[in-house]
Design a protein that fits this description.
By secondary structure, this protein is mainly beta. The chain contains one helix and eight strands; from the N terminus they run H-E-E-E-E-E-E-E-E. A six-stranded antiparallel barrel has the order 1-4-5-8-7-6. Strands 2-3 form a two-stranded antiparallel sheet. A hairpin with a 2-residue loop joins strand 6 and strand 7.
């Protein structure tokens, strides 16, 4: 079984450093129908971005099409959430789904479904 440290090293070797950007909306201004005072926080994370991923369902291996990122959880400050951005060089992806990976109850990684 992988530990959080082993998973972080593996993802670091197979993937690369990307940016997780989380934006917090400011106060809503009904006069302008917009939010003001929004803030963003960036965090460098190790990730493997892939077009397909494998998942076990009903005792069988199923190939899931789409864009996915496997992100090491070790040393992460923020918890990824739907609507966050993954920035990989000049490419930006929006997080559509977050699946924590917790074998044995220990968080080691997140699988993120992304949209370009």
């Amino acid at each position: 079984m992988f530990s959080a440290s082993t998973m972080a090293v593996t993802i670091g070797r197979l993937g690369r450093s990307v940016t997780l950007r989380q934006t917090t909306e400011g106060a809503y201004d009904p006069a302008t129908d917009s939010f003001t005072g929004s803030t963003s926080a960036d965090e460098a994370v190790s990730a493997v971005i892939q077009r397909k991923r494998l998942e076990f369902r009903g005792g069988a291996v199923v190939e899931i099409e789409g864009l996915h990122a496997l992100v090491a959880a070790k040393d992460m400050v923020a918890t990824p959430k739907v609507g966050d951005l993954i920035i990989d060089g000049s490419e930006e992806y929006t997080v559509q789904k977050v699946q924590p990976r917790k074998p044995g109850g220990t968080l080691i990684a997140y699988t993120l479904d992304l949209k370009q």
